[in-house]
Amino acid sequence: MSRPRPYERTIRTPEGVSFTIPLAGPVRRGMAWSLDLLMVMALSGAVSAGVHSLAPLSRDLAQALAILAYFVLSVGYGVLLEWFFRGQTLGKRVFSLRVLDVRGLPLSFPQVMIRNLLRFVDSLPLFYMLGGLASVISPRAQRLGDIVAGTVVALEKDFAPPDLAQIQPEKYNSLSAWPHLVARLRHRATQEQADLALDAVLAREDLLPGARILLFAELARGFSGLVPFPPEATEGMSDEKYVRNVVQGLFAGGGRH
Amino acid sequence: MIVDLARFVENGRPSWEELARVLTALSKNPEREMSPEEIARFHFLYQKASSDLSRLHAQSGDRGMKSYLETLVARAYGEIHGSRPSRRVRLRDAAAWFFLAFPRAFRRRFAAFALCFLAVALGALFGAGALVADPQAKEVLLPFSHLLGNPSERVAQEESGESDAGKNAASFSSYLMTHNIRVSIFALALGMTFGVGTVMLMFYNGVILGAVAADYVMAGEGLFVTGWLLPHGSVEIPAFIIAAQAGLVLAGALLSRNRGIPLAHRLREALPDLTALILGVGMLLAWAGVVEAFFSQYHEPVIPYAAKIALGFLNLFILVWFLSRAGWKKEAP
Which domain covers residue A206, as residue numbers? Predict the structure, then answer.
């Protein structure tokens, strides 16, 4: 079994299935925290302005309420939001982050409470230096509060399935006229070769033109070395088209002649 | 073996999308109760997605597809295997926590409290002894300007009614509550230093307490200082020590080599007690802040010292009774 990459958490379920949770790095978390800090300051300012309207009645009472409001907001903001919104504050929501139990389970209240209270240590000596250092060193990007509470901050992914239109079998595929050769190719190609070709086809729009030409030329050379197709099957075909046809053959059961 | 991705997606998509809809509904309304049929269907969809993911892991396939299925399985796994405690705040639960969970956690972790109490007591003895032996050390022992003056002059000023006590009682009370709770959270968090910082903080506070008490007693103002500190100190000082107790519980979980239990498990076991203790401390300090601002700062002739000292002892008695007896009968053996 390969070693998990940094900032990932691999979990094996009782059903015997493994899945990987991508974890947030310190920079993204820092940005979310900055937004939360701005929120706390804005809310405190608004509450302070509100309670000071009570000053004509009692200046002492208005000041007392302002002190309490700032305290509740600064300490309670993270606790309350992460509890009621299942691991998300406003900053975390904007930056697609969510706090989870390190075992991939939802948070308990003690976990939310303790990870937020230990910010007092993480923020030492200033600007979250200790917590930032801990999260850089930790393979799970955990600050000290996370380590004690047994939590990680995961990157939220949406439920949108990937677009597989590039390999749909409806498109014309000249290689499918030789199904025995396609079957041989499926047998001889390694998983790594197949995965690489699939990734290249799906990510073609993200590649620079020069890099794309070089990559598909290299992939085409590799596949043609495994199973040579007759010249009429590949005549006038670009390397990219050839690889695309190969991928359709590998992953989409061939294609239409 | 390379999976036929197109057929794989065609076959799996309806059940994956149904699972995604269930998870989205649960995310929007976590309190929603599912019927037995819905639960059974949810489990089926989870197992189907798990099986598909397992097949994709074993065979070659698109990384985006794997990532999509991993997201579905991860979220469903969390919903099925994790508890879903209610987010509603009920008064009954809050009362049960304060009157049961807090004192039980205190008793369960009493050794840590005793150690912190010892640190404060030793600090107080050291502070008092140092001031008696070397009165010039006052500036070092008490680095607060309002404590450096002559105790008798302070008493005369307080008793003449010239002080500002009572003019800003509400804001002073709020300040004391929030400041003391912050210090308590800090005492808990210092448990991360394997308890060294927590014990040092307790010792240092003990030094200040002992030096102040000795300073006033030596000046013949023992009655005043008792009436001044006891009403709120009888709650505030134990509350600080309980916060430090939580710090040592944390340190104990970090340091323990007991039965080869992994660190993560030891910390997980300690979390409920840490939470109960620190929330309890918050409640105690809120009460202490009210007493200090609205009672302790008034002196004779406004409030007789005997009444202030009696309130202090009453506070202490109730606190000791509460921590030692509350929830005792229902406590699990």
Answer: 165-251
Q: Are residues A219 and A187 in the same domain?
A: yes
Residue A54 counted as domain residue? yes
Contact A60 B170 (CB under 8 A): yes
Is B183 in the A-facing interface, judged by CB distances under 8 Å? no
Q: Give me the number of domains chain A comprises.
A: 2
**A93/A169 same-domain check:** no
Q: Indicate if A107 and A74 belong to the same structural domain.
A: yes
Cα separation of B291 and B173, whole Å?
Answer: 8
* Chain B residues touching residue A202 (CB < 8 angstroms): 62, 64
Confidence of residue B330 (pLDDT cuts 50, 70, 90): low
Alpha carbon distance B9, B4 (integer Å): 9
Q: Which of A19, A86, A159 sits opposite B53 (nearest CB)?
A: A19
| C-beta of residue B185 within 8 angstroms of C-beta of residue B282 | no
User: Chain B residues with CB inside 8 Å of A105's CB?
Assistant: 77-78, 81-83
For the ranges B49-63, B96-110, B256-270, B284-298, which has the lowest average pLDDT?
B49-63
A65 lies in a domain?
yes
Residues A49-99 pLDDT 10s: 888 887 787 888 888 888 888 889 988 999 999 998 889 999 999 999 999
B24 Cβ under 8 Å from any chain A Cβ: yes
Note whether A202 contacts B: Cβ–Cβ < 8 A: yes
Instruction: Report the amino acid identity of residue B331.
Output: E
Is residue A2 domain-resident?
no
Q: Are residues A150 and A41 in the same domain?
A: yes
Residues whose CB is less than 8 angstroms from the CB of residue B150 and which lie 6 or more positions away in sequence, other chains included: B219
